[in-house]
Amino acid sequence: MQDKKGYRKYDRQFKEEAVRLVTEGGRTVSDVARSLGIHENLLRTWKRKYKEDPAGGFPGKGHLKPQDEELRKLQKENANLKEDKEILKKALAIFSKHPK
Length: 100
What we know:
CATH topology of the largest domain: Arc Repressor Mutant, subunit A
CATH class of the largest domain: Mainly Alpha
Strand content: under 5%
Radius of gyration: 24 Å
Order of helices and strands: HHHH
Helix content: 55-70%
Oligomer: single chain
Number of helices: 4
Distance between the termini: 72 Å
Shape: rod-shaped
Number of strands: 0
Number of domains: 2
């Protein structure tokens, strides 16, 4: 599959199978890359990412790894709490003024 810029997109299953052919199949990166019609460096990158994190190595476009998703969620929650705190501080300042 290709996107608007002409780049080919590969799904998670394809990437995992390509890496498996190298790691478990006993074939070289260049041999597997050639047989699949992809660049060797692309396959090496997939292999490295898979080795670093087998479960979340290929999260997909628009998706984050579980730990990154959790971090983003916590950062958003933190920003919301800071905003709430500032609103409450302003409200307290307004309501604590004594009428003259």
